[in-house]
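This week, study the protein below.
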Amino acid sequence: MDQRAARVDTSLAGDSIHFGDDNLQPPPPELLKALFQRQIGPALTGKRLFLAEFSVSVFDPAVYVDPNNLYNAASSVPGGYAAAPLAGLLIHGIERMRSEKIVRVRIEGKVAGHDEFRTVVSDRYRGRVTEENIQASILRALDQAVAEVRRTLAAAAPALPIPANQEVPK
């Protein structure tokens, strides 16, 4: 799957909007490098960082207006058939605003000589997904990625020997 170009996948379930490097600023590799240097700094000195995946997508579920229910409602009101097309559009718009959209951010990589790191954030938003919603989800994923890399580096750090004449702190 090419992560570098944006695309939209449409199915009966809804639309999946995939953001690529072409519509994320700054580009994910630069963003991750700058963030890791700023937040982890010296612990990464001399280590190579590999970014295997940085994906951002929004799932917008399809909504349907049941034509039978619309027909039954229109037939129960005088002049309802004349208003049915407009009512159908209005109901469809309301249902789209009520539906939950899912923003998913996945970051995977490896710090050379250490274990891989992986983080997935899946946030739900009602109504229209805004740029601020997407940024908030990306920031959560980045924070988790930083924490994961810190844990990976700490686990790989050599333990300091304890002199024979000292107790291990409890």
Summary: The first helix runs from residue 28 to 39. The mean pLDDT is 79. The chain has four helices and five strands.
